Predict the 3D structure of the following.
Amino acid sequence: MPESAWGWLIVVYLFLAGSGSGAFLAAVYCDLLAPDWSKSLAKAGSLVAGPLVAIGTVCLVLDLEAGLWEPWRQVYLAKNLSSMIAWGVIILSGFIPVALLYAAALNEITFIGKIAKKYIRILEYVGSIMAVATATYTGVLIAVVNGVPFWNTPMMPILFLASAISTGLAAAMIVAAIIDITTIKTLSNFALGHVIFLAFEGLVLMLLVFMSLTRSTEAAISANMLISGVLSPYFWVLVVILGILIPFILSIIEYYEYGEMPKSLVIGSDLLVLIGGMSLRALIIFSASPPQII
Amino acid sequence: MKKFGMTRRKFLAGAAVGSASLVASQYMSFDTWAAEKAVSDEVTVTPTLCDACGNWCAINVYTKGGRIWKATGNPIAGLNKGRICVKGHAMLHDVYNKDRIKSPLKRVGANKFEPISWEQAYKEVGAKLKEIVSKNGAESVFLVQYPEGNEALTKRFANALGSPNVFSHASTCFLPRNIGWWLNTGYAKPEQDLENARHVVFIGRNPAAGLQLRMLVDMAKAKDKGARYVVVDPRFSEMAAMGHQWIQIRPGTDLALLLSIAHVMIKENLYQKDFIEKYSVGFEEWASKIDEYTPRWASEKTTIPERVIVKLAHDMAEAAPSSLIHRGYHGAMGTQYKNSLQLVRAVGCINGLLGNYNQKGGMFNAPKVKLGKLAADKFPQVPELDMPMADGSGDPERYPLTPVGLGLSQAIPELALAGKLKAGFVYHNNPLRTCPNPARMIEGYRKLDLLVSFDYVLSETASLAHYILPESYYLERDDVVHTNHCYTSKQVAIRQAVIKPLYDTKPMVQILIELAPHCGIGEYFNFTLEEYNRAALAPLNIPLERLKKEGVIDLGDQWKPGEPKFVTPSGKLEIASSILKDLNLPEVPVWEEPLVSPNPKDPYEFRLIHGKQAHLTHARSINQKYLKEITALNDIARVWIHPERAKALGIKDGECMTITSPVGKGRARAKVTEGIHKDCVFLPSGYGVFAKNLQRAYGFGTSYNDYLPTYFDPVLGHVMANEVLVRVERTQS
Amino acid sequence: MPRYGIAIDTTKCIGCHSCRVACQNQNGLDYTETFNWIKDKERGKYPSYDKEYVPLQCNHCENAPCQRVCPTGATYTTPEGVVLVNKKTCVGCKYCMEACPYKMRIILHHEGIVVKCRFCIEMVREGGTPACVTTCPTQVRIFGDLDDPNSEISRFIAESGAEPLRTDLGTLPKIYYKRS
């Protein structure tokens, strides 16, 4: 009996789609609320959002088998609307163009960007809804799977949304720093975002894991795998300590030190958030434990 | 072979393929599944006989587009009643095994062969054989085979050369079981009416893995009707999974259990007095010797609680005469213990106490078909040889009870080393892997001046052969008419080719016919297979064509319960055997200690026991990928050990253990389970292939033969395969 | 229209795997590909020790999660209640494999599609029984119409109290097990 069908491609897809939509939300947030001093972050966020989600989608397609070799089969992909993948296909095919268009508009890339700029508010509102849908959908995708009791909880989309925002913010901040290292100082303002969303993510994650211990036998098997079993070193070190705790502490320091923290630590903290987000998805996928049927 | 299209309806009517057979054209048009390319594939169905084990079940083999596809069981066949086991399905694929031998081979170095023509092979084998016979006499020639089907002709071949040395696997399989039953009843292999038996006891017999489909079909039916199955075994066997009660017994002590059951039945007057008085001899002698075999005594020997023994005796007696002890096979009643012969004797006698012979739900003898013979005027008969075999089988001074023609195949290396055997033919057998102590087997077989194999792959034995004359795979060849399907009625059956041979191989009968002239015995093989088969069928008035069309034909003569019949010297069930008395052996079944017993104080010492798995036939099917996958997926090649013993040795489930015996050392992973007696470890058989050319099987697992010294039971000469103590320890990495 | 199901009596199963290979042959599967599994379950200590062999295959659930999550609609239910996969529209996303709580689906990597037990529907429509049912030496499986109260399977279920595995999962499986 094949116990797990999905592997790294799906993990990468869940991560990229999440962080891409998170980056989009970060960009829109900056552009709407602080357009004057957070320009670079808005630009960076808009630039990474579309490509991240697109690459993620490529991973999803690469994970297809017959649908990959005989691509015309993909026309059936949105046929059954009770499938979350069908909804995912609809959401993604809406969000990716919007995100790319938004990047073009905000950065005034080519004439398309110039035209799109006229409709930038519409792009921001529609795109934000789609970004939230994308991030949430990656969680719903696995939350509806009753073949894996550990996934089968409404906390999953909430966790994925929180993680999408923190990883998206991190991705945007790293790219912003790459584009213009002097912006590091202004980025410190956004450390508060990290503090809030990492705290929320950590809370939801702990709720999910510890409530799974009593939710069902199989969910408990998965949770135990993470807390004390074979996956526990990765869970505690990569997800909890490196991915949440350290960036959380660093972000608090960064926020209060305002620009005094070494650049490497600021960037490092964001990298850790990304590593944590990726590890979180990997561990959730690989800790899947099917119902005990006999 | 039959094309499906035109004759399909006729085939369905005639051969009774049954409602289960699918109709190919419908299958093809089913758009959700059928591959487009399959639409053009033509389907044929050919009735034939399986060869995945020694049962030879009747199967209808389907081909699709010229390739073997699948098989269904022939519903009228007495042996398999419409079913096919896992091996039967899987071995269909082996016709396409890459390891197959593709033409006659001549050995030109260690494990190095070159292809030669049939003509050259016949010439060289014939010349060498003639040279050996003229120098050392025909008695220096032997044949070792799995005696099935073509047996009459292979035996004819050896006898025509002038050699009585026809060996089989008997001494590693069933010898005491056959001799014991023959002494008791005059029949070596009585059947049992499992469909109607209400209470069946299995003593070290596991028909759920040593599969005979008809038994399982009948038992499943009877179980639905309320039959009760008690399984006496050191381990929880597959049969125990289907049974109602598992009685765990210390290996080698089944005889003690049975003697105490007899004790209870006799002391408490629970036996069928009418039967005993009318149809048995020696009851009084046995009754007078049975005093000491109390349940308490047996409880100490067997580790079975006293009350369980008494209850079992009561349960058995209550269901009599539809109550029986299974006649056994390779297990405790086969060639496994020094006391196996006594055990079979006791089983036969207790079945007598139950009065079940020829009763509904009891023991009976299958009606036999008498086949015709080649007309003596046209086809010279081979003169009868009246001499014992080189190993002492049939020799009044050595193994008087062991029949000539079965022999003790583990004696061959000794005889070769002593120069008494010089040339050997190996047919449908692989003694290097199926006999104990392979190092010694190899040494002996290497000593031969001529070794000829008819194998279809380079098995262990074939790898040592000087010449290989490859027999066609069973799906590619015609064989002689077969009577193995007689069970409750008379049946004849035949194997025929389903596809043409893929390689330059031939049916065994044709090889013998073509080889004989080169060996100077052509006059005895001046017929064709067809002539032989027609002669066999002549008295039955069945045309060969009809048999080939139907695969199996039922001749009626259904067995019905009635007057018990025995063909012993007394004409009765011999509780006291006159034959044994004449040989100065115990006349009635009495206790006999097993050859060895593990020291209870030594935590490392165990008795090594073994047994079959349903999906493997000896070591010859683990090279089949569908079957090997079953072992791999379920991790069932592990050696069973009791949790308490494992704990004392620091062995955890799945860990590697080193097993050492006086003749061998090997490794196996542990299956720590409550389902085994503390005194022993259980090694599933079917593994330990050391023939390098069997690429899939090579080096996988270990065989009990690797640990077993070469023994000869003092009375019958069998290998006593479970009489070996091994040292088990955790493998130090 | 019948509504097909299988009743399995595990107390007769000997774990021989005939069903597995009969099915592999019928459906042209390679040796690692299977629609049938047999899992064993050990319980207790001697003398109450017991080992049960449980044959497993697609449950053809009435409320099939695999069908619900299939984006292309390749998984569908026939009028006879048999859950099948359309080979031509499956994209191999494997969502159904994750969704099946019984884990009874496999992917054929060489064809790129997900497959599973099909109740040998083409033989059944011809009046036969699935290959696993036909070959079983101990007649562990009874195949038939669950809606016909007089069918062998319905009578067996009524008499033995056989139940599907994990009814709590709510998928309404059509394979019933008699387990003691």
